[in-house]
Amino acid sequence: MLKIENLHVSYGGIQALRGISLEVPDGKIVTLIGANGAGKSTTLRTITGLVKAASGSIQWNGEELLGKSIDKIVGSGIAMSPEGRRVFADMSVLENLRIGAYLRKDKEEIEKDVQWVYSLFPRLEERSWQLAGTLSGGEQQMLAVGRALMSRPKLMMLDEPSLGLAPLVVQDIFSIIGEINKQGVTVLLIEQNANMALKIADLAYVLETGNITMSGTGAELLANEKVREAYLGKNG
């Protein structure tokens, strides 16, 4: 279980997070929805140690993460697929995947996990020796998710996985997120496609200008009039 309590984060005098509290229970899909600049990406970056918190607490299975180094946080079972994919363009698909396992020493298991990722994303296997920079946007997103999975995370954090992708590819990505969760990985999802995110989520939070203004099950927020008007359009 990931538990955030009263988390404050500031950037150069601007408060990005204003005392947010949320929980990500084991085995669930939890989504954070909100407009650009609401603080969603800041939340993920603070969990991974990329951004320093001013105050508050982030506990992972009872252990405080604030103040820990990034490699210790990754080593504890947390992985992130960042916004904008950020694959290593001049390296092959397979090389990108292996980089995801850089903290691991179990070579045989790493090769098994490459095959596991290929089973989730058959297109990556077809293009295993292709340079990542020559892949389509959807394939790069698959590679970014696959690379994060190679650390064998207990918690997978996804930052805008559908951004800039065609609707059919978005469907594929969300199907795979569901499959990853079924295989025992807890998911924390940031997504501007609120409709898709709420449909897949067990729990959901609405983040507005650094504050959590609403929470509930995915279905509850999907049916909420305020959420529908703000994030789904009046007709949902």
List the helices and strands and how they pair.
Elements: E1 2-11, E2 14-24, E3 29-33, H1 40-47, E4 55-60, E5 63-64, H2 70-75, E6 78-81, H3 93-99, H4 107-120, H5 122-126, H6 137-149, E7 155-159, H7 167-182, E8 186-190, H8 194-200, E9 203-208, E10 211-217, H9 218-223, H10 225-232
Parallel strand pairs: 3-8, 3-9, 6-7, 7-8
Antiparallel strand pairs: 1-2, 1-4, 4-5, 9-10
Main sheet strand line-up: 6-7-8-3-9-10
Quantity of strands, as a count: 10
- Low-pLDDT segments, ≥5 res: none
- How large is the share of residues in beta strands? 25-35%
Number of helices: 10
Query: What is the 3D form?
Result: globular
Which sequence of SSEs, written as H and E, runs from N to C? EEEHEEHEHHHHEHEHEEHH
Specify Rg, calculated over alpha carbons. 17 Å
C-alpha end-to-end distance:
31 Å
Structural class: alpha/beta
The oligomeric state is single chain
Q: Helical percent range?
A: 25-40%
Q: Biggest sheet, open or closed, and with what strands and sense?
A: 6 strands, mixed
Structure, explained:
The chain has 236 residues and is of the alpha/beta class. The protein has 10 helices and 10 strands. The strands form 2 sheets. It has a 6-stranded mixed sheet with strand order 6-7-8-3-9-10, sandwiched between helices. A 4-stranded antiparallel sheet has the order 2-1-4-5, with helices on one face. Strand 9 and strand 10 form a beta hairpin. The longest helix has 16 residues, at 167-182. The radius of gyration is 17 Å and the shape is globular. The model has no long low-confidence stretch (mean pLDDT 92).
